[in-house]
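2024-03-11 09:14:02 DEBUG pipeline.ingest accepted 1 chain
2024-03-11 09:14:02 DEBUG pipeline.ingest length=208
2024-03-11 09:14:03 DEBUG pipeline.predict start
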Amino acid sequence: MKKFVDILLRAIATGFAIGIGGVVYLSCDNKYIGAFLFGTGLFVILSFGFNLFTGKVGYAVENKPAYLIDLLVIWLGNLIGTAITSGLVLCTRIADNISEKVQAICNTKLNDTLMSNFILAFFCGMLMFIAADGYKNITNNAGKMFAIFLPVIVFILSGFEHCVANMFYFTLAQVWSLKTFGYLIVMTLGNSVGGIFIPLLRKGFVKR
């Protein structure tokens, strides 16, 4: 039980970090600066050992089936954390400044097709695994920073879909509905398939 409480708390903390990254991104007029600063969220998550669904799902390939329960707890924790963060932001003056931008972002996502969202989420899932695994295995500190920030910048500027970031955006824009939840599930599946893609390929690599 203590294990799942720990997993959940770390996942909720992740929701706060992603929410803060989302706020700074929405607050920036320059999309390049905003994309870079959004990476602050992932920096906090990886540095403090928090649990991000898209950073953990790739390791399902090398774990036992029980790991899927951990992933479910992480996903729920990320949702709780982003919901609390967006709820707090909605109580501040910042909400008025970013409401139009977040509404436009959510409209674009929800007016797109499920197939498009799945594919865009697939690519994001690949990038998030690259970031998490790079931070884990690269020993050079500069390399670790590149591993964190470059994938984030690329996925944002490319318009790829990140399910946890979207949890924050959907709540902040107050657009939750059955359709929204369905789209989030599709994005989660896309992130999951993208996240395990490289680990699956890696199983076939010739190790030297």
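2024-03-11 09:14:41 DEBUG pipeline.report The mean pLDDT is 96.
2024-03-11 09:14:41 DEBUG pipeline.predict end
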